[in-house]
Amino acid sequence: MTRSGAAGPASARETSSAARTYPVTERTEVRRADRASYDRELVHAILDEARLVHVAFVLDGTPFVVPMLHGRIGEILYLHGLPAARLFRHLRTGPEVCVEATLLDGLVMARSSFHHSLNFRSAMVVGRARLVRDHAEKLAGLEAVVEHVAPGRWADARRPSGPELRQTHVVAIPIEEASAKVRIGPPVEDPGDLELPVWSGVIPVRLSLGEPSTEGAAGVPAPMPAYLAELLARRDGGAGTRDGGDGANRG
Question: Which domain, by its residues, includes 72?
Fold first, then answer.
């Protein structure tokens, strides 16, 4: 039997380790173990870099997948939409849903068509939706969505009015079951293909922002704020491994 005095540090280490990862469940386990991760920071980073997520749900026996803007506060994802929309009519009943985000990082071109692939980072969350009724949390959820699109925008733009808030549903989805799947590195090549005169390598893929336009915009002209200029200066989608790496997740 372990003495109580010796159990303390080990227990603390186990708790700390568990806090850094999501539990592996039957619903979130990635079958390709070499591409799997349950690291909280990685899952959060993918969700934060993705410009939108896809929400999957089943309604009256029919599966649906809907692209949505999202925001994250800690371990909660927030979505917003019209109360009359099919998705939000369903989400306000508190069903379980699956939320997925994918970042495409590269086209992996092998000498064999069998080994062609993509470098990517994806995150999947399974959770039970909750209609946000608390006014303060509803505003915080909307702020998270707006700030996800362009950090600094919530403080600059007009806040939602009372009628606009009544016309908007905000749904919270806890990130309790989640996993990430990642592929990095060069193509896998069969030894017999190495002498083939076929180009092989990785073509990087990046999400980039174009030149802003105010053509056709109504209202009083205003200079571009610094936070948007900073966003444009970065141009591409964000940080993260794109086409390099040590090949640990090849395949």
Answer: 28-105+117-185
